[in-house]
Specification:
Spore Coat Polysaccharide Biosynthesis Protein SpsA, Chain A, transmembrane helix, 2 domains, membrane, two-stranded antiparallel ribbon, Glyco_trans_2-like, transferase, Nucleotide-diphossugar_trans, alpha/beta, 15 helices, globular, 8-stranded mixed beta sheet
Length: 351
């Protein structure tokens, strides 16, 4: 327990200082294709289009929205944007084929028409600063892919308990600069909310066919790229992009329920993750209250790792003291995800 907390703290400190961060924007010469898969995202279209149209320092870019059988006003909102002068292209994805999930299927349709040297994938609820893509390309450097991790907006109490764990999980367990150059897929870290990849690297794996049926499409895409010989990793994108994934615990439960079962590879992997969360997040408090002095220090160390993660991702540092509660809820969500596997509904589809 104590030594695990020390190890987490050491790695969190190292990543805090070494994680790749944006530099000042300069004019880019690369051509860019931006792919945005949308399904029932009518409320996000207008703001997102404005965010994309405002991008600066890009030589030539194309913006492709892929409408994935939306049943709300998404198509109308996209047409309104085009009628208003937005330089966007809209593709209606064909009916979903067996063996595919919606997001990879939509991205594949965009990939087939992409002309840029660099392909950027965005979720519809992400908002970019005006220089975000240019700065992200600069962070890409000579790597094949990079995932600038957006700032995760968390307003409700349940969001504040769970959402910070996304970044903390890899900030405290993965040596990020080592992972960027590693051939080990176990070190892959990525976030499909904002992802850049060289088109020729995508070509090597057939676009998004390698992740056709993957719930964790972003992580599996990174792993597929690494298997093909590509290199890349995650970067600090909190000053470039932000998003609010969920608005209440019901949405959190559905969102995590559809994917957590796959996050750790197997039931034994999930059991190991649960043990890790218990040993590092809950056991220290139990030991502390039981009178064991090392329990207090172990709790302090893990709180510091959360605080470092929050500071780097522009989150709420004070929420770090609630890490034991966050760990307990995440354990519940992992178990729930396995029990609900194949029965969770997301955007009108059962996963």
């Amino acid at each position: 327990m104590f030594f695990a907390s020390v190890a987490l703290l050491w790695l969190a400190v190292a990543n805090f200082f070494t994680i790749r961060r944006p530099v000042a924007a300069i004019e880019r010469s690369e051509t860019v294709t931006i792919l945005i898969p949308v399904r029932n995202e009518a409320e996000n279209i207008a703001d997102l289009v404005l965010s994309l149209q405002a991008q600066q320092f890009l030589n030539k870019s194309e913006i492709i929205f892929i409408n994935d059988s939306s049943t709300d006003d998404t198509a109308d909102k996209l047409q309104e944007a085009k009628d208003g002068g937005a330089q966007i292209k809209v593709i209606n994805a064909p009916e979903l084929l067996d063996g595919w999930l919606g997001k990879p299927w939509a991205l594949q349709q965009g990939y087939l028409q992409a002309k840029g040297e660099i392909v950027v994938t965005l979720d519809a609820d992400v908002r970019l600063t005006s220089t975000a893509i240019a700065q992200a390309i600069a962070m890409l450097g000579d790597r094949s892919f990079i995932s600038p991790y957006p700032r995760q907006i968390a307003k409700t109490f349940s969001e504040r308990l769970i959402q910070p764990l996304l970044q903390w999980s890899w900030m405290s367990t993965v040596p990020l600069r080592v992972a960027e150059k590693s051939t080990r897929t176990s070190l892959a870290v990525a976030n499909g909310q904002f992802f850049l990849v060289r088109k020729n690297s995508l070509d090597q794996i057939g676009g998004f066919t390698a992740i056709a049926a993957e719930v964790l499409d972003d992580m599996e895409l990174a792993r597929a790229l690494i298997k093909s010989g590509a290199f890349g990793g995650v970067a600090d994108g909190s000053s470039l992009a932000q998003t609010r994934m969920y608005k209440n615990f019901s949405e959190i439960k559905a969102g995590y329920g559809k994917s957590l079962w796959k996050a750790f590879g197997s039931q034994s992997g999930s059991a190991a993750a649960i043990a890790f969360l218990f040993i590092t997040g809950i056991a220290p408090v139990i030991a502390w209250f039981g009178g064991h002095p090392l329990g207090f220090f172990a709790y302090q160390f893990v709180v510091i790792t959360r605080a470092l993660s929050a500071a780097r991702s522009r989150g709420r540092i004070l929420d770090s003291i609630l890490h034991p509660i966050s760990s307990a809820i995440l354990i519940y969500l992992i178990i729930y995800s396995w029990r609900a596997r194949g029965a969770v509904t997301w955007k009108g589809r059962t996963l």
